[in-house]
Amino acid sequence: MINLEILNELPLDEIDILTSDKTEFYKELDSMVPIMEKVVNIILDDHLSKYDIDVEGYEFEISLSYVTKDDIRTINKEYRGKDAVTDVLSFPQFESIDEVASAVDREPIVCLGDVVICLEVAKEQSIEFGHTFLRELIYLYVHSILHLLGYDHMEENDKKYMRCAEEKYMSIIDIKR
Q1: Disulfide-capable partner of 148 in 11, 83, 92, 133 (CB 3.0 to 4.6 Å)?
Q2: Residues of the domain holding 153
Q3: Does residue 177 form part of some domain?
Q4: CA distance 2 to 6
Q5: Is residue 112 included in any domain, yes or no?
Q6: Per-residue pLDDT tens for 53-76?
Q7: For residue 169, what are the CA distances in angstroms to 121, 125, 138?
Q8: Which CATH number does the domain housing residue 126 bear?
Q9: Has residue 78 got a pLDDT over 80?
Q10: How many domains is the chain partitioned into structurally?
């Protein structure tokens, strides 16, 4: 079972989300939590089944923060040395799925890591790519979960492998471009 801990709620007046109805926007964010929990359970089950670990018998935790462009730029600069706005940052607690599987036997709750999503950039990208904001947020979340499990996209082969996994899980939960 996954425990998705949303660490902050941004004040409605602090974020430019390119919409006038910010209350409706936050309702949409809340509606995504069950989808996010479902997709992480699918991903974990798919990866941990190789170790004969049934996800249902364990607890996993992911911290999710929604931030502004200024916030994500500051975090990106502090932790990655990149003075730039980005859409999402992932901070894994483990280097690989092997380490996650090993932790399952030792820890009552396995903290997979932190995910930080810039809502403004996600909204802009949804418009740029011509799909819904929901689809963009879920995609960024899937992308981050894969990072928390050891995926990377620095090398071309790794990038292809990760993109294939992203599309696989988006398809499983029936969220298409």
Answers
A1: 92
A2: 2-172
A3: no
A4: 12
A5: yes
A6: 877 778 888 988 888 899 999 999
A7: 22, 20, 10
A8: 3.40.390.30
A9: yes
A10: 1
